[in-house]
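Escalated from tier 1: flavin-adenine dinucleotide holo job.
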Amino acid sequence: MKKIAVIGGGIAGLTAAYLLGQRYEITLFERSERLGGNAYTLTTPGGEEVDIAAAVFGRHSYKNLCRLFKRLHIDTVGSFDWNPFSPSLGASFRSLDDGSGFFLSPGIASLISQRFAPLRPRNVRTLLQLLKGLKRARSLSAAGKMEGLSLGEALKEVPELSGDAKLIFVSCLCLISSMHCEDVLDAPAAFFLEKLKIYHDLVPPEALFSVFFPRNRTKEYIDALSAGFADSIVLNARVRKVIRRENDVIVVTEDGKQALFDRVVFGCNADQALTLLEKPTIEEKRLLGAWKYTDGRIVVHNDHASFPKRELMQGYTFLYRKSGRYIETSVSGSLWVLPGASKSMDLVSTQHPNFPIRQETILFDGKFRTPIFDFGSCSMIGELPSLNGVRNTYYCGSHFGFGLHEDAVTSAIEVAKQLGVEF
Ligand SMILES: Cc1cc2nc3c(=O)[nH]c(=O)nc-3n(C[C@H](O)[C@H](O)[C@H](O)COP(=O)(O)OP(=O)(O)OC[C@H]3O[C@@H](n4cnc5c(N)ncnc54)[C@H](O)[C@@H]3O)c2cc1C
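Tier 2 regenerated the structure:
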């Protein structure tokens, strides 16, 4: 056995190809015109490079990603700055209805510009309520009392997570899942509570000391992962179908060409893999067919009209509207907080925009696809690895875990292991 086709050039497909490349001849098929999937470094007209999607990781919870970075010699930088006069990564919440806000940016400039508002009793109470609510939710979950409940239902069992505490909690879940609020509230509570347990260091206060960025942008590790098989990457690939036979696999492209491989690894999304399979097994239909995805719009712009002042948006800014039990929120990342950003940087990367953005301020407008974790898909996660090795086919991707880089990398390491390559 010598030749392996990898379909999908996101972090999962790339990691699988990088590891398997040590032993096999790899051909990587990527549908778009670039590698990286949801890891994307944008170059501004001024030549500056900024990460507009995945770029934030945790030192303790991203164990395999950290090992991979070490092996690739990828330098990283922490998000927290001990200098109180220099801003660190924070979170701001601002109502689009009445302009009121809650701004949590560590640093003196932020405190002064909002006249020490975070220290006012009402706001301190909200934060204490949030911590208490999280603790209660975790212990209810550990006692099995959240089983079968949606997050919306579970919140009713935790009175502390109401009002502003609920707003902060749910907004942060929208951030770490890229899902809309209604999907978050309809998702299984146990999924999110488990995710917060595993990724505890993405949550304040631990996040302050654990969250890090790749110093030279995500582009650096995408390039490093793909360097060893650069000549056998097919960009703009149009794979029509994948035919599995007893001892090999045929990848058929739209132009009718056929290429023969010994094995195939799907690093694309679950539903995309399913549409490519000729004669999927019953299990493939069941386990891959359960997944739905959000095509989340991301706009990179410098229209600051709806935002608070710059000192109050040092990290993520949630511009929200309350509508019944839902909160409709966009998530904006201030790109000037990223390592190496110039002092004049004023770009914001907004996911799920819910406010007007003037056309002339837009530098990038695109869609990034992420899994929806609902009762159907979540119940399949544990079984997904059982598909590996059947009919010369293997699968990896962030949907094998909680939707983050670490999950994608871990699932790719598992595929490599099954094909005889240890990491
Ligand atoms: C805005 C945003 C910010 C995020 N930030 C973070 C973060 O800071 N930290 C974090 O850990 N996670 C973050 N994530 C989550 C991120 O999605 C995952 O971490 C991870 O990048 C997903 O990797 P993947 O390889 O599983 O899938 P993807 O990145 O979706 O890659 C799948 C690839 O398959 C390709 N493909 C699809 N169909 C075909 C086909 N038919 N033929 C060939 N190729 C195909 C696609 O073009 C794509 O390149 C973020 C997501 C978004 C959208």
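The chain has a mean pLDDT of 93.
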